[in-house]
Amino acid sequence: MEQLKCKDSLQPMNKMFFVPIISLVILSLDYYVWMAVKTAFQKSTKSIQQTARYTFWGFTIFIILGIISYNALPLHAWKNELRITFMALVMISVITKIFIIIFLLLEDITRFFRWGTNKIRKKDPSAISRHAFLSQAALAVGAVPAATFAFGIISGAHDYQVEPITLKIPKLPSAFKGLKIAQISDIHTGSFFNKTAVKGGVEMLLREKPDVIFFTGDLVNNESKEVQNYFDVFNKLKAPLGVFSTLGNHDYGDYVRWASPSAKKQNLKDLMKAHELMGWDLLMDEHRFLEESGEKLAIIGVQNIGLGRFPWYGNLEKAYKGTEEAGAKLLLSHDPTHWNAEVTKKYKDIDVAFAGHTHGAQFGVHIPGFDRWSPAKYVYKQWSGLYEEEGQQLYVNRGYGYLGYPGRVGMPPEISIFTLS
Q: Are residues 368 and 254 in the same domain?
């Protein structure tokens, strides 16, 4: 498929309206929440009421000014730590207020029906007012997700989990039985805030002693320079048969404004160079062979191929060509939607595809040996774990890093360890 030319996520005209609209939405929702806060503190002293008012609206103004700054200034104007902190505050604030609003809406619906009933019965409808207890209960309800998502930043962001998977491939050449493959995906170096913990995850992977390592895209959030602070961590990833990598949708710099098209192209070149300097074999619509005892295993890697709002840059036909002689074929493709979009339709002899991209939404329930759940399942048909269709398999890694919300709740970062059989 012809390569798509992705535009900036928000064009200048869209940006002109984005900040006023989002600010109006924030003010409207916050006013609704504020009415509950005001009621909850109505029996407190005036000084406490003033403190609550200034704190609440001061935080609202801080968020709006932050959004204005985030959209007006170039990305590099924000220090990484400041950007991560701001995003964390926004995410926790939004999630908390959503829970409060849901609670308040349920109460207001009840109040509305009581008001209507009183009016029909010719009673005084003005007597229906919000109760301080229910307002306090709404705030308590909102405090639960706030605490949960704060814990997801402090503890969940780097709670790396090794997932052992026995991968049965019927056509696997006997020379490759027992081959151990490690997969990580979606590193997003620009989001990290704890280098010691990130290094610990790499050491966990290396202790598994894999024969080969796969990285399935999204090394950065937007800019190649994000790799710099973590170069000396990820260049430690080594394996006897090599480290093979591919690009994800975030690696192309499509979600940030560039001074010029040439600056964007240079960014991608720099990112590709980072793969090379770390000793990773970046597959740009290419393939490689692992050979043992006269038998071949093909590793195919494509640039990002996705459906919907994500770009289709890759060329699987080009990458696949020449692999026909291999006894088994493994595909590295960042976005799992590519599997049903093309792989299972046209390339029936690709045995296993390895993907990432979904992050498992960084939220959900993942208990080994039991069922899994995440909001990601409502967006992606294949969102985490191993899938099989008519003899072909797809594995979706939950990701090593995080994006936006700098944490994980119930959906820990993953190091996949496959043993071929």
A: yes
Last-in-domain residue among 101, 122, 154: 154
> Residue 217 corresponds to which tokens in the numbers above?
């895209």
Look at strands 385-389 and 180-184 and give their pairing.
Answer: unpaired
Tokens of 341: 């979009």
Burial of residue 324, with CB atoms counted within 10 A of its CB: 0-12 exposed, 13-18 middle, 19 or more buried = exposed
d(CA 329, CA 171): 9
Alpha-carbon span 302 to 334, nearest angstrom: 8
Torsion sign across C-alpha atoms 114, 116, 118, 124 = positive
Q: Which residue has the tokens 């007597």?
A: 127
- Digit-coded pLDDT (tens) for 247-256: 999 999 998 8
Q: At what angle do helices 80-120 and 132-154 cross, to 10 degrees?
A: 160
Identity of the amino acid at 393:
Q
Alpha carbon distance 350, 346 (integer Å): 10
Where residue 74 falls among pLDDT bands split at 50, 70, 90?
low
The count of structural domains within the chain is 2
Residue 368's CATH number: 3.60.21.10
Residue 333, CB-side half-sphere exposure with 13 Å CA sphere:
32
pLDDT tens readout for residues 233-242: 999 999 999 9
Residues 86 and 187 in one domain: no
Domain housing 52: 12-154
Q: How many degrees, rounded to 5, is the angle at CA 384 between CA 380 and CA 386?
A: 115
pLDDT in tens, 397-411: 999 999 988 999 999
